[in-house]
Amino acid sequence: MEGHRLRIGALAWSSSMLSSGSRDKTILQRDIRAQDDFVNKLAGHKSEVCGLKWSYDNRELASGGNDNRLFVWNQHSTQPVLKYCEHTAAVKAIAWSPHLHGLLASGGGTADRCIRFWNTTTNSHLSCMDTGSQVCNLVWSKNVNELVSTHGYSQNQIIVWRYPTMSKLATLTGHTYRVLYLAISPDGQTIVTGAGDETLRFWNVFPSPKSQAGGETDTLLGRIFMEVKLEHHPLEELKSDDSLGLMCIELAAFALACAMAG
């Protein structure tokens, strides 16, 4: 697939539509069923597009950029319908809530360190939490109203938060470099993280729907139960030199998480 002039740093799926964000400041929409290179080109960011995420109903696309901007596009627009400028560093971490329509979370880079929450239905900024570290990724639990953030400088940690109080439920440590990638298993219980320390780590972080309904406590929550060493593909090297290789590692991490979920 061609179309971008510079490296591609973000991908997001919406049914048969694939969205890609690039250092050329654009987002391309491709229908993989069609032979055209791309269906739409979305322009609005003034720097590299480094974060993309479709809402659960596939009606809204959120994009983050190295211009410190967070934009929301609808499925038919070629210009952003919502623009948020409160972050003071790159916005790579983006996550839509599966529990409340229009609830969007975003995380800023090293100079910002904040997780912000937005109501895209009312176009309002809801709250802000200073995490103390670069926010690299965000993902919501599918089973409970909680979310996970992964971090870079200076803590390189993983935090589980309860929403909306933003109380810390767990702080997971083990990675020795920034935690660049995060994926959640289909059953919503396990996450896999990839870091610049050349490892993938699998964690039990969320309760199963069965234990949640029965009021049980899962003693494995917060424990790492597998570590995979990437001997020949340092994530930090791929971050700067090989975006395609980096995407392959991200997809491999997700596939491994799916396999572990059975």
UniProtKB/TrEMBL annotation:
WD repeat start-end pairs: 42-83, 172-205
Gene Ontology molecular functions: anaphase-promoting complex binding; ubiquitin-protein transferase activator activity
Domain spans labelled CDC20/Fizzy WD40: 1-203
GO biological process, any: cell division
SMART domains given in the database record: WD40
Entry's family note: Belongs to the WD repeat CDC20/Fizzy family.
PANTHER family attached to this UniProt entry: CELL DIVISION CYCLE 20 CDC20 FIZZY -RELATED (PTHR19918), FIZZY-RELATED PROTEIN HOMOLOG (PTHR19918:SF1)
Name of the protein in question: Protein FIZZY-related 2
Species of provenance: Vitis vinifera
